[in-house]
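Input sequence (504 aa), recorded before submission:
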Amino acid sequence: MKMRSFSCVLMATTLLFSACTVGPNYQRDGMKVPAAFKEVAEEHPATPAEIERTNKEMTEWWSLFNDPVLTDLVKQAIAGNYDLQIAGTHIMAERAVRDRSASQWYPQVDANMGAGDVRYSINIDNWPIRPGNPSNRPGASIMTYGASASWELDVFGRIRRDVEAHEREVEATIEGRRALLMALLSELASDYMLLRVTQLQIGIATKNIRVAQDALSLAEKLYLEGVGNTLQTAQAQAELDAQIAAREPLKTRVSQVTHAIAVLLGKMPGELEDQLKVPRALPVVPAFPATMPSIVMANRPDIRMAERKYAVATAQIGVAVASLYPHFVIPLTFNPNASAMYQLFQVNSMSWSFLLMASMPLMHGGKLTAEVRAAQANAEAARLTYRQSVLNAFKEVEDAMAAWHDDIEYAEQLHKAAEDSSLASERARKLYGAGLVGFLEVLTTERTTLKAQNMEALAKLERLRDAVNLYTALGAGWKGVALTNSSLPVSVDNQNILARAFSQ
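Predicted structure, token format:
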């Protein structure tokens, strides 16, 4: 008996020390990327000072707009946004799943105890006399206590690969939260730019309403003096009504954007009315980044998440391959049984087992090899998804840089057009007052001026959004924000002493 037990222990020890991990080890995909972006013509390599400046800009890019209100809104959004908090709890959940998978490395032990009466059937021929019950009575009292345990020997690395996959999944979930943070900051900044530009448009509309009122007053004055006519007066009144009507949708947009910003901050719509309703000067368009090497693409959380998903899929191949190999488990049971309390601890009441069990898959109709092929296909799909993520990221950066450069000249031309139109409108009103032109010329120049001013305002919005889109495409903003874990309303610490004692 002792020799056999020693042989079993020796076998188990030998297996443990000779354990191997089957399946492929993860290797990063060697995708080649250009050293610089096409839309950037760098005449000389970036200096250390330029690289340091760019890295700093990547950390808190929203501060480059020189708008303290925007900076404060970003801080509130990071602290209060519910989607970001939900992403934090997903990280906690994935870590718990990883820990649950790692628990397979350790013996699983449970204790049990019980007492009661049982009755056996006696309507069976040749029923053997039960030990300890010589009179063969059908009923008996039983008291029992004991423990059961099971320990899986991770000989071929199934558990190791499973833990590895869940660890990579934790990292992917962290990158997913960072990607969500970037999207949140991008949406918040874009909404804030839209708010300020819309308020600028309301100011333009209000100014044009005053101009239309002056034109109506002038038309009425000329009519009373016998120079004008009722047609001109009606046209001036219609223009004034149109200008007033055009301002109302802008007010609605301000309210809607303010509500959207409040929700991004985790607040009820309307809570930011007092803070945001007062118009401010437009944020300053930041300077173009000092240096733009393509290595900055390593900042993008979506690329980092796709790379981690590829690592997850690679580890899952090992899990599938391990199922083709033998499975070793050490089950242990200890359950004394007796009919009286004083007998429970006697030698004759002892009942236990200690075994080394091995199982080998023999015939499963191709199920196990199919699972391996499926895991390999999923890993290849994850690798291709990573590559596609890199391509999409480069496209977004190139598009953002192209828009940045092209919109500079576009905005300058619209600014010049707005100034020229305003001058033409002022001259037309003076000429109309002198009776040298008709009111139609006044209407035409005023409408042209309004259109040019609104187009200039929208061009300013595009310039601001170009900056937001570029920094977002570069993966900027998440490095300066630490991961935050949400506290759960129910935890082991809130439970009774038994739950806390046996929670491991």
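Checked by second reader. The chain is about 60% helix and 10% strand.
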